[in-house]
Amino acid sequence: MRNNRLASCAMAAALLALAAAGPARAQVWPTKPIHVVVPYAPGSATDIVPRTVFDQVSRQVGQPIIIDNRPGGGTTLGTSAVAKSNPDGYTILVHSNALVTTPAIQANVPYDPVQDFSAVSPLGNLPLVLVISPAKNIKTLKELVAAAKSKAGSLNYAAAGIGTPPHLTMERFRLAAGFTGQVVPFRGAPEGLTEVMAGRVDVYFAPITPALPLIRDGKLLALAVSSSKRSVALPDVPTTIEAGYPDSDFDFWIGAFAPKATPRDVIDRLHQETAKGLQNPLVSEKLVSLGVEQMIMKPADFDARVAKETGIAIGLAKAAGIAVQ
């Protein structure tokens, strides 16, 4: 009898130790610097946003957070490095939704957005804005669609690379509106915006951050935003859905992810600290100035969104006839 009681006590103690291990680890983490891998060159919105947010998170957790830019391979170089890294909470990926669109248009991508990563938190949503030169004398989205349909295939549109979120955004809208056109790929947003201002390219679904100053200066006209709701930075510009084109919305988000096997308690702590950082008034003010809008979402909900958008991207690439590279 006494031995049974001792065995029961020992088992209970072991269970209590296991239950306490997670919270204890989360309280201890972090004990050393954290590396945030950004698979883009410095200066883009996908680089500026995490620098803004994680500078504040670093103060909160009392450890340096180092932004590590690893561009290359159409963002796959840095992304796959994180997927293969030690899942201990000290290597984090910050990516745009190119995380889910890249596998739709690239063959043999060395990561799976669903199987290799656990979502931590969105850092924000950046509406894409459809811009055109005022010299084109087109004032509304319906006028643009009418012009495109009047001469099939005549409209051309910029894209910062084939299969990127801005490109797929335009393809989703084009398919929803029912017209044909020609994509003109560029290396980045600045080149695309320059060509649209010059009138050599008709339109561009551009990231809002670099487009805003040009819109405000009257150098470009905003016809619509791609997001499911109007942009706070451009409250008078309708969404493509409001303009009369169902199933044409496409959000451009930036988010933080950890390797899939990262302990859940560490991911929860990362999420809590990131959410707290996003609520800091100075961080919020900076993000608003960049046109970044809040995108509050729990890790499990963000995981579900990544899975859903992965399927949408694959279907959209096929419908638009984008060949796998």
Helix segment tally: 11
Element order: H for helix, E for strand: HEHEHEHEEHEHEHEHEEHHH
Shape: globular
Number of strands: 10
Strand content: 15-25%
* Amount of helix: 40-55%
Low-pLDDT ranges: 6-25
What report would you give on this structure?
The radius of gyration is 22 Å and the shape is globular. With 325 residues, it is an alpha/beta fold. It has helices at residues 2-28, 45-61, 76-83, 98-105, 141-150, 165-177, 189-198, 208-216, 264-279, 281-289, 299-319; strands at 34-38, 65-69, 91-96, 117-125, 128-132, 156-159, 182-185, 203-207, 221-225, 253-259. It contains 11 helices and 10 strands. Strand 6 (156-159), helix 6 (165-177) and strand 7 (182-185) form a beta-alpha-beta unit. The strands form 2 sheets. A 5-stranded mixed beta sheet has the order 2-1-3-10-4, sandwiched between helices. A 5-stranded mixed beta sheet has the order 7-6-8-5-9. Helix 1 runs parallel beside helix 9 (264-279). The longest helix has 27 residues, at 2-28.
